Amino acid sequence: MFLQLLQTDYVALFAIIAFGILLGKVSVKGVSFGLSAVIFVAMFYGYLMNALGYDDFAIPPIIQKIGLLLFIFTIGMQAGPSFFEAFKSQGSKLIILATLSVASGGIVTFLLGWAFDIDFKIAVGLLTGALTSTPGLAAAIESSQSPLASIGYGIAYPFGVIGVILFVKLAPKIFGISVEEAEKRYEQEATADTPELMNKNFIVTNDNIHGKTIGELNIRFMTKANISRVMEPNTESKPPTKETILHKGDLVKAVGTTDALKRVELLLGEVTETKIPRSGLHEIRWFVVSSRNIVGKTLGELDLHNNFLATVTRVRRAGLELSPRPSTRLRFGDKLLVSCTKGNVAGMTELFGDSIKMVETPSFLPVALGIIVGVLLGKLEVPLPGGSSFSLGLTGGVLMAALGLSRLGKTGPVIWHLPSSANALLRQFGLLLFLTPVGVGAGTKLVATISEYGFQLFGIGALITLIPMLIVTIVGHFVFKVNFLSLMGALTGGMTSTPGLSAMDNMTESDAPQVAYATVYPFALVAIIICAQIIGGL
């Protein structure tokens, strides 16, 4: 009865997940595997089934595929909004590191294959297994016209998975890096382009602006700051409009960066400590963008000045505060600090939606549609010189679709948005579904592979995994000075290691590894395929 339960696939699936999570909570000298421990339990389970004579035991492949799709899509959705900015700021360094990872892996494969007289049809399989690249294996089999590549892949893949997990877990200790300090530096770098917003009060002393309207002065364009209140002497403050006339002696409250406020001082006059109290008709409050009708529209298109006598003074997005501009395009879940008259609060609420519940309520529709888009994108064939072709494949297509759609924000009635809590749950669930079949499959072949081919190929496969990681880490950390979290994300992306990324995901709350992984993964995928085609053809 017990053995029958052990070989029941759905029982095995949840048993492996449960024991894997428990094992992942065990910490030895501050090192734990987190969710990645599931793959070790899965490998032992596969080995146990093999030892008991159940050679054909396996978790249905569809489980692995569904898990991979969910995990990769949620990574893309999380990293998408910051992916393109990261690509602009540090993408070139990360791509160089990804190239270095694949190129060094290819060179090590060639040299070791030549030194130990290994058939390159097996060696190319070792390369793709060491880099855990199934698309690379497909390219290797096609270029070598031999099934030997799959044997090499099977030998190198287990350590390709385990080696990357161990490396990213131990690297901070080996290189003396504090993950907490790396998180702080990443936050500082991420917010460098979005400096802190401040507010100051000014008294109008400039004779040249006396009697002119805010619209005529074009203060937003001239200073990059926003005017939130205006008060004439001995009167109540009021929200500004384009028609508001400024006079000498008026008090003006402006919101912007330090540089923007300096420009306001040059334009209007002196900074004053005099307070500008709110009037009974005036209100400043936060609104949440939850209305589908305005997602994707710019603040300029909404023309809040004329329609609601209102001014947006701050935009809060994904924990960052942005200075609002007419060209600022609204995203689902944005929070806007608006200065307006009390009579227009109801109209503003209707315009923005202002529903936290709607923003935080998950919908599976964007996940399902986005994965379909990714699958179709992955099947597109791009012709290459020599008559061959290239495609992103399932993983690459879904990742690129998620990145693009999350950046786009809205397509017709579909909002490409997942609340952070829903994203985290789906990402974890997908990861567990992915790791379990991978580990079981590797475990069932472990003994047979060792007895047939010996340990030599295992050692070579391990070197193909380890040497590129050491080279990339040394160059990225000491030469390029890349943030260590981004470096580890780039390393796992260059190794196309989803389990390795999951190990980083459990070490830090920062999205730096995911952003870096998403930045380099598509490029690494192409590079591995090309490298496999070259070595497989030798």
From TrEMBL:
Keywords: Cell membrane, Membrane, Transmembrane, Transmembrane helix, Transport
Pfam families, sorted: Asp-Al_Ex, TrkA_C
Keyword Transmembrane belongs to the record: yes
Start and end residues of each RCK C-terminal domain: 270-354
PROSITE patterns, per the entry: RCK_C
Main location group: membrane
Any one Gene Ontology cellular component term annotated for this protein: plasma membrane
InterPro entries from the UniProt entry: AAE_transporter, RCK_C, RCK_C_sf, YidE_YbjL
Subcellular location: Cell membrane
GO aspect biological process, one term: potassium ion transport
Transmembrane intervals: 6-23, 30-48, 68-87, 94-116, 122-141, 148-168, 364-382, 389-409, 429-448, 455-478, 515-535
A GO molecular-function annotation: monoatomic cation transmembrane transporter activity
Similarity field: Belongs to the AAE transporter (TC 2.A.81) family.
Name listed for the protein in its UniProt record: Transporter
Species this protein is from: Flammeovirga pectinis
